[in-house]
Amino acid sequence: MPRPEHYRHRGPTRTTPGVPLSVVHPEDAEIRAVYAEYLAGWNAHSAARQAATLADDADVVGFDGTQHHGRLQFAADLRRIFADHAPPPYAGTVRSVRAMGEETAVLTAIAGMPAPDGTLHPDLVAVHTVVLVKDGRRWKIGVFAATPALRSAPADAVAVLAAEFAG
Question: How far, in Å, are 11, 24, 109 from residue 59 at the CA level?
Answer without folding.
Answer: 31, 26, 18
